[in-house]
Amino acid sequence: MSALLEVSGVSKSFDSFKAIDNLSFSVNEPELRAIIGPNGAGKTTFMDLVTGKIRPDTGSIRYGELSRDLTKMSEAQIARAGIGRKFQKPTVFEDQTVGENLTMALAAPRSPFAVLFRRVDARAAAREAAARVGLEDRMGTPAGILSHGQKQWLEIGMLLAQEPRLLLVDEPAAGMTSAERERTTEMLVEAAKTRAVVVIEHDMEFVRRLNCRVTVLHEGHALAEGSLDHVCADPRVIDVYLGRSETTDA
Length: 250
Ligand SMILES: Nc1ncnc2c1ncn2[C@@H]1O[C@H](COP(=O)(O)OP(=O)(O)OP(=O)(O)O)[C@@H](O)[C@H]1O
Description:
- The protein is an alpha/beta fold.
- It has two domains: 2-82 and 165-249, Rossmann fold, CATH 3.40.50; 95-163, no CATH class.
- The chain contains eleven helices and ten strands.
- The chain is globular, with a radius of gyration of 18 Å.
- Adenosine-5'-triphosphate is lined by residues 14, 19, 37, 39-45.
């Protein structure tokens, strides 16, 4: 296990407001990490910085064994380097079937299957990708008629098909049934056996089931880090986060 992503002393202001304030954060490969924190803590901004959507004012973001500086790479270069991002809302092609969505993901430049594409049965590869997210029986179903949870799984499957080294997932459990949440936990735990997976989540039951190291963000910096029990017992975390109702319904 070694650090795959190393964020050091990063700050980012919008006008005069410091959304990220001297943040240091690292994640290993493989590792499953949860990020929790109150609304406005900087969780989404953190993902925007790692994926190159925005640039830090100060600090460095290093990635991989060559310690590549992500702040000097474009969003497309960062994606090609193996960083995948799942936004909160599902973004699948609704008119296309599950199989077609996965086939498109498999053909993306990052996908290792792209090279082999003509030699392997594309449908078999798509079926395998579907099986990773429990959608093998839905290959011919238009994505538009899937449940919200299934659309989320399809998008996770599309990202996994590209074999990211680091997968960033923003609030996957929002709007899911409890059975879907449970299944999603299993998927993320499985995916994190061979890569780094960082999950932003407000649902504490979901985080508990992830059974992983947790980082608490507050006012743009890491307030506490450790097991869920450890951070939940921290008076500062109780004060800024756990005492608030948003922990269960965001
Ligand atoms: N492009 C922007 N311009 C101005 N302010 C911004 C911008 N992006 C984020 N912010 C501000 O930065 C702060 C951190 O926002 P961010 O969305 O990262 O928080 P969050 O922890 O993801 O919150 P939530 O849990 O509500 O999604 C907020 O106060 C937000 O209003």
